[in-house]
Amino acid sequence: MNPILSVENLSKSFYLHEQNKTIPSSSHVDFKAYPGKLLALTGPTGVGKSSVLKCIYRTYRQTGGRIIYKSRTEDLIDLTLATEHRILELRRYEIGFVTQFLHTLPRQKTLDVVAMPLYQQGVDRQQGRERASVLLQQLNIPKRLWEVPPATFSGGEKQRVNLARGLIASPRLLLLDEPTASLDAHTTHRVIDLIQQMKARGTAILAIFHHADLVGRVADDVVELTAPKD
User: Fold this and answer.
1) Residues 179-202: pLDDT tens digits?
2) How many angstroms separate the CA atoms of 87 and 36, rounded?
3) R_g over Cα of the chain
4) What is this structure's pTM?
């Protein structure tokens, strides 16, 4: 099986202008992600796990290395060199990212927040909302909250909305940054079921988990990151 993603000697550092100092985040990161498999990134706090995901999604620009993505059309794309237009296109149709925080437009209803990735692909509003309602129900979001904005939701409710939005478009590559950190045990079990379903459909998943036991439950491969040398 060919990998959908190959990360080669990736490094990321941050330059503090006011201190004229460079802070290393990740270095010499190498791994491959495969369709239908979940690769877990592990390592101590501050080792740069989230930075790696953000470099793949191009929220951050890497300091060194390559990130090769195999697209739906079999093209090999170095995400570190791709144009902004191509990155936005890949985010819309192929690469999803669930972060630890929910960012939405004010007054946007929860159903539309979740369905937004489908709207961006041209799915009509009714069909998008129907698919969003299925996921919200699976993630235990009460129906009374579907028509109100999620701004006032609890942390756990916002995280579930965030997960639903990340999962709804069935991306080919899914990045998960501590997706269950704010969830209770019952909802975490629901999320794990959804992750397993996505793997069965062939989605390649790259994930960071808050609890090590979840890695053992869902990960097919594990890459442990080590602290970069100063």
Assistant:
1) 888 788 888 898 899 999 999 999
2) 22
3) 18
4) 0.91
Residue 52 near residue 12, CB atoms below 8 Å: yes
Share of the chain above pLDDT 70, in %: 97
228 alpha-carbon distance from chain centroid: 23
- Using CA atoms, how far residue 192 sits from 64, 151, 152, in Å, is 33, 25, 26
Helix (H, G, I), strand (E, B) or coil at 82: coil
Return the SS3 of 20: coil
Encoded tokens for 52: 């790696």
| pLDDT, mean of residues 24-31 | 88
What is the residue-wise DSSP string for 122-160? Answer: T--HHHHHHHHHHHHHHTT--GGGTTS-GGGS-HHHHHH
Phi then psi for residue 45, to 5 deg, are -55, 135
In 3D space, the residue among 151, 219, 157 whose CA is nearest the CA of residue 182 turns out to be 157
